[in-house]
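Chain A, query sequence.
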Amino acid sequence: MATKTRCGWATSDPLYIRYHDEEWGVPLHDDRALFEMLTLEGAQAGLSWITILRKRDTYRRAFAGFDPKKVARFDAKKQAALMKDEGIVRNRLKIASTVTNARAFLDVQKEHGSFDAYIWSFVGGRPLKSRRRALREVPARTAESDAMSKDLKKRGFRFVGSTICYAFMQACGLVDDHVATCFRAARR
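Chain A, predicted structure.
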């Protein structure tokens, strides 16, 4: 049986492979799922993505299924309790930013009708499809991620630097960076 050729970052870990094959680069339009990915990408800052993937189920439990209305109501006591949860990244700033971001997320929904409508406006409503031949050609940030980061920060979001925004864009399919040799690139 032939082995599928994947992007070089998708190691032999089954969790990584499943994420690469089924999620990464697939256009995402569900507000709750977009909030989840924005939160997880921010939590990943300074860590490996596989670390976050391994903690994802616990994050879903700890952050009320990523319901932004519920997370926006997390008080200091709830945030302190999360600092004791070994199943998530116990970083006070990252936990607090998730609550802050939930509140800003709700403001964006109110203003734009959905976070989806807002976030996809940075790519004109359609995925940007790259034609990169190798992983080394994939940028860490782009003009679109710079614009997204700047606007999110202006709206009060935290842990949304341009590199985090670009990773979010890749994860949620706003940009498709599967390299040309990857079996997923053939599905475009």
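The mean pLDDT is 95. The two ends are 24 Å apart (CA to CA).
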